[in-house]
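Example for tutorial group B:
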C-alpha cells in the first residue's frame, strides 16, 4: 500500500514509518527539509512557499496520516509561538487537502492527529470518544487550537474519504515526547509530584499508538473521534511515585503549581490540566493493548 504522511519526521512519524517499512509498504513523507529517499521511504519537499505544492495526482494513496504542525513542547508559548502552533497545523492541513483534491483516485482513509488537551480540564469528568459538550467551553489555547485543526480536517469528508480524528493522550516512548525529560529528572533524584498531583494523565505507549493507528486504518467501521490512550489513566502523583520506584530513586519533592506556571507560562497547562479519558472506540472494537497499565509501560521503557 502507498501511504502519505505529513509530519512524518517527528517522534510519532518516525515510528510509524519504521512500522510500515517493515511490512513492505511504500511510505511517502511530506517534509520541509530536503532529504534523500531510501528503500521504500520517499521524502517529498513541500510548503517551500505559499503557492507550490507537489503533484502526486498519479499516485494512489490508500492511507493519509496528518501529523504536521509546530512542536508543542520545544518553546515557551508566547503569543507569537501560539500563532505558529495553530497556523502551522491549519496551513499544513489545508495544503494536504489541496494535494488530495488533485488525486485521480482518492484515499480510503485520512487519519488526522489531534489532542485530548482540547477537552475542558476536569478532575471528575470521564471523557469518552462519544462525549459532546452541550455548551462548549473552548476558552483555553489548546481547546481553541484543537477546534480549529479538527474543523479544517473535517473538509476531508466532503471528498468521500473516511476521516478518523485521532485524539492523542500523553505518548510515552524512549526516543521522544515527554518521557525522556521525566526520566532524566527522576534519575537525578529530583523527581516529585506537581502541586497536589491529583490531575489525571491519560497516556499511551508509543508501540500501542503505532499499532492502534494501523488498526484504525484497517477497520472501515471506525470513524470520527478516536481516543488514542490506555484504558487505564493515572493520576500524576501515582505516575511520579511509580516512576521513582522503577528507577530506584526517592520520591520526596512537591513542585508548587505556582513555580511551574512561572517557569513555563501558559505551557504549564500541558502538565497541570487534568484529562481523564477513556478509549471507548478502541476497546469496543477489541483492540489489544500490549501496555494497558503504567506498570507494564514503565517496565518496557526503563532498562
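The residue assignment follows.
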Amino acid at each position: 500500500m502507498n501511504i502519505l504522511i505529513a509530519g512524518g519526521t517527528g517522534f510519532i512519524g518516525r515510528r510509524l514509518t519504521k512500522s510500515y517499512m517493515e511490512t513492505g509498504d511504500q511510505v511517502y513523507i511530506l517534509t520541509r527539509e530536503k532529504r534523500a529517499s531510501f528503500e521504500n521511504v520517499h521524502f517529498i519537499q513541500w510548503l517551500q512557499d505559499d503557492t507550490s505544492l507537489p503533484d502526486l495526482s498519479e499516485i494512489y494513496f490508500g492511507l493519509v496520516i496528518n501529523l504536521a504542525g509546530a512542536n508543542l513542547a520545544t518553546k515557551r508559548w508566547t503569543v507569537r509561538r501560539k500563532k505558529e502552533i495553530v497556523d502551522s497545523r491549519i496551513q499544513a492541513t489545508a495544503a494536504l487537502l489541496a494535494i488530495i483534491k488533485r488525486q485521480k483516485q482518492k484515499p480510503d482513509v485520512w487519519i488526522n492527529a489531534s489532542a485530548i488537551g482540547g477537552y475542558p480540564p476536569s478532575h471528575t469528568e470521564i471523557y469518552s470518544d462519544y462525549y459532546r459538550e452541550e455548551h462548549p467551553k473552548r476558552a483555553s489555547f489548546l481547546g481553541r487550537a484543537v477546534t480549529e485543526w479538527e474543523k479544517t480536517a473535517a473538509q476531508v469528508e466532503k471528498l468521500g474519504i473516511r476521516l478518523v480524528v485521532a485524539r492523542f493522550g500523553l505518548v510515552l516512548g524512549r526516543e521522544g515526547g515527554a518521557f525522556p525529560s521525566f526520566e532524566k529528572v527522576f534519575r537525578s533524584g529530583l523527581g516529585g509530584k506537581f502541586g497536589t498531583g491529583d490531575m489525571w494523565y491519560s497516556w499511551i505507549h508509543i508501540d500501542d499508538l503505532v499499532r492502534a493507528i494501523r488498526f484504525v486504518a484497517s477497520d472501515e467501521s471506525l470513524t470520527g473521534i478516536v481516543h488514542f490512550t490506555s484504558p487505564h489513566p493515572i493520576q500524576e502523583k501515582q505516575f511520579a511515585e511509580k516512576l521513582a520506584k522503577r528507577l530506584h530513586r526517592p520520591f520526596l519533592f512537591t513542585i508548587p503549581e505556582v513555580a511551574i506556571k512561572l517557569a513555563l507560562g501558559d505551557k504549564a497547562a500541558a502538565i497541570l490540566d487534568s484529562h481523564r479519558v477513556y478509549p471507548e472506540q478502541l476497546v469496543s472494537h477489541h483492540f489489544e493493548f500490549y501496555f494497558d497499565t503504567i506498570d507494564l509501560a514503565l517496565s518496557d521503557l526503563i532498562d
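The first helix runs from residue 11 to 22. Compare this with the pattern of hydrophobic and polar residues in the output above.
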